[in-house]
């Protein structure tokens, strides 16, 4: 369980506003004479402090969409605004600053540095952030304080994903991007990670955008966007969100 402490977001009690605004976003890949349209004019919003789940099968464009929001990839046209910053117009240097300060990433396969300890994996991110959280507090929040001096190879998959979440959260981002965060985990461990993400959202006021093919996870979201063949085909609002421990698949 996360410790009960005040949110780090000073604007936590203000009315919700869009933190992600996307209009007519298009992306295609070219391989020889073959052109593949991955995103076909995406338009969407994500509000502050929401948990939003993007559902879609493999090849629907959901990871490409997340990578463009995170500044890892670029769209061919359209506008992407995150926390008032027009990401789609940033040059490479400013994109680096944006990724460092504004967004946190949680990937399916953890991406921890193997020759660094748990604490060092988190501190390397903390040290390049302008307003990081305390490393020990974040480790305690994800219940990994007793693993601080272990190396990734000494951890289970679920423990590595907890460290990955801690590493993303320590820089105190407004937006946390999660790409299939439970895709490599077993059923019980997946529930543990989903509970942790829900608690991060509640404690820190962190907006969470998660892409997954697992339709059951949609129950914990405030809103669900269904992506098919590069287009949003449905948007659903959950009047109440389901606790992660009640999700079953």
Walk me through this protein's architecture.
The chain has 249 residues and is an alpha/beta fold. It is built from six helices and ten strands, in the order βββαββαβαααβαβββ. The strands form two sheets. The chain has a six-stranded mixed beta sheet, sandwiched between helices. Strands 2-1-4-5 form a four-stranded antiparallel beta sheet, with helices on one face. α3 packs parallel to α5. The relative contact order is 0.20. The N terminus is likely disordered.
Structural class based on helices, strands and sheet pairing: alpha/beta
Radius of gyration: 18 Å
Q: What is the CATH topology classification name? A: Rossmann fold
Shape descriptor reads globular
By oligomeric state, this entry counts as single chain
Order of helices and strands: EEEHEEHEHHHEHEEE
What portion of residues is helical? Answer: 25-40%
Mean pLDDT figure: 91
Alpha-carbon distance between the two ends: 23 Å
In order across it, which strands form the biggest sheet? Answer: 6-7-8-3-9-10
* CATH level-two architecture: 3-Layer(aba) Sandwich
The overall strand count is 10
CATH superfamily: P-loop containing nucleotide triphosphate hydrolases
Topology:
Blueprint: E1 18-31, E2 34-47, E3 51-55, H1 62-69, E4 77-82, E5 85-86, H2 92-101, E6 103-106, H3 118-126, H4 135-141, H5 157-169, E7 175-179, H6 187-204, E8 207-212, E9 223-228, E10 231-237
Parallel strand pairs: 3-8, 3-9, 6-7, 7-8
Antiparallel strand pairs: 1-2, 1-4, 4-5, 9-10
Helix pairs in contact: 3-5, 4-5, 5-6
């Amino acid at each position: 369980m996360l410790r009960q402490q005040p949110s780090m977001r000073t604007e936590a009690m203000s009315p919700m506003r869009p933190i992600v605004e996307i209009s007519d976003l298009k992306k295609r890949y070219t391989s020889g004479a073959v052109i593949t349209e991955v995103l076909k004019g995406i338009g969407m919003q994500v509000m502050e402090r929401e948990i939003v789940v993007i559902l879609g099968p493999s090849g629907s464009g959901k990871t490409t969409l997340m990578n463009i929001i995170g500044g890892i990839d670029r769209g061919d046209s359209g506008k992407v605004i995150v926390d008032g910053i027009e990401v789609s117009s940033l040059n490479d240097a400013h994109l680096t600053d944006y990724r460092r300060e504004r967004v946190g990433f949680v990937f399916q396969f953890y991406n921890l540095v193997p020759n660094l300890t748990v604490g060092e994996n988190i501190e390397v991110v903390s040290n390049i952030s302008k307003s990081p959280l305390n490393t020990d507090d974040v480790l305690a929040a994800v219940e990994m304080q007793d693993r601080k001096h272990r190396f990734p190879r000494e951890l289970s998959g679920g423990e590595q994903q907890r460290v990955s979440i801690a590493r993303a959260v320590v820089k105190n981002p407004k937006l946390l991007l999660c790409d299939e965060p439970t895709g490599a985990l077993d059923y019980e461990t997946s529930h543990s990670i989903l509970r942790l993400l829900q608690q991060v959202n509640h404690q820190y006021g962190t907006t969470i955008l998660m892409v997954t093919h697992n339709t059951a996870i949609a129950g914990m979201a405030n809103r669900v966007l269904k992506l098919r063949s590069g287009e949003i085909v449905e948007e659903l609002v959950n009047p109440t969100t389901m606790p992660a421990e009640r999700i079953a698949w």
